[in-house]
Amino acid sequence: MTEPNELPNDLAPFWMPFTDNRFFKEHPRMFVAAKDMHYTASAGHQVLDGTGGLWCVNAGHGREAIVEAIRHTAGQLDFAPTFQLGHPLAFEAASRLSLLMPEGLDRIFFTNSGSESVDSALKIALAYQKARGQGTRTRLIGRERGYHGTGFGGISVGGIVGNRRQFGTLLTGVDHLRHTHDPARNSYSRGQPQHGAELADDLERLVALHGAETIAAVIVEPVAGSTGVLIPPVGYLERLRQICDRHDILLIFDEVITGFGRIGCATAAERLGVTPDIITLAKGLTNAAVPMGAVAVRREVHDTILNSAAPGIELFHGYTYSGHPLAAAAAIATLGIYQSEGLFQRAVELEEYWADAIHSLRDARHVIDCRNIGLIGGIELEPRPSAPTKRAMEVFHRAFDSGLLIRVTGDIIALSPPLIIEKPQIDEIVEKLAAILPTVE
Ligand SMILES: Cc1ncc(COP(=O)(O)O)c(C=O)c1O
């Protein structure tokens, strides 16, 4: 077997996800090790992790307690099914996770990824409506520019055209709210933008169009990440919650990115003071050391499904690896680190410093907007005429070569470092970007 630090001699068989495969295989850039805030690249240099891997390594890399929990569990219980049987670690992980969720969302369904969490949440919403005798409520409402992973459910309610256009007609009975990005009124906002709460009224428009009795659930990211850091306007999520309540529609927050301290609390729901009915999670749940996702469900939704079912299986849904022992062990260790090191609070403590750093780039070449919340930063570049996305991609490659990992989506640089980041490392991120931006045409 190839060791992680030995380079493979054939790059062709691995069809890489969300990648320009032809370019990559001509210009491979690889990681061979990771510790704390840094990757080691195959070329030998250190790369400061400005993105927590893919918004997921919230506690920093190579955490010994997590590694040890995985190692120990692999030797003790490599796998156990959770269909009609169980093992203690899955129950313990669910209990611990439920304590971090907003009050009432204390029933946990395990998955293996954010995409599976989203599809599970949508299915739970439909099953709930049917269970309570509202079987006409089958319509799912997402939002333009939303990212909810890559399952058919997720891309149907999602609103990123590039992720949809190759795949036919998708789910039927789906509609979308308008997105909240409004640079004319809100550019260079620190924290939540002031304008746009009224965009939530789009849901009233869809209720008038389709009839409330056809709508099962609305799903949004409280802070949209993968589409380029869209922060909810002040009052927007509150209004969405009110309209859902008025029409008896379930509200789902996709917190795959915002969960586990990214904006300073266990959930964005807690930080922003709006409680949905269902929360989807993944990524930071295990600090990304083992794949795992989860859906936190309001107890009444869970109980309705269980209590209305005939004796036997209540929800015909699940995954071979739901609550996998290694993932459950990693989750328990990860939640322990978040708590013992106060990492969610750390994101709050660093937030002002981080905001100053992000906004220090406002006059850098090509920059047309900077935005921030918690330890998330978005820096939007003016697209190169007739070649959108190319400019940001060049910044990405130059950053990597200069020892900084960033993420780009369209022409937006998205930053989300591990929550253990130190102030000098925040400085390093913006100093590197400030040096690179003028060198890119
Ligand atoms: C909000 C949101 N939902 C779902 C997903 C999908 O997660 P995964 O890639 O683990 O399937 C992501 C991934 O970035 C995400 O940001």
From TrEMBL:
- Could you name the domain of life of the organism this protein comes from? Bacteria
Q: Which SUPFAM superfamilies match?
A: PLP-dependent transferases
| Alphabetized PROSITE patterns for the sequence | AA_TRANSFER_CLASS_3
Q: Which cofactor does it need?
A: pyridoxal 5'-phosphate
Task: Write out the similarity annotation.
Answer: Belongs to the class-III pyridoxal-phosphate-dependent aminotransferase family.
Question: Which PANTHER family does the UniProt record give?
Answer: ADENOSYLMETHIONINE-8-AMINO-7-OXONONANOATE AMINOTRANSFERASE, BETA-ALANINE--PYRUVATE AMINOTRANSFERASE
What this protein is called in its record is: Aspartate aminotransferase family protein
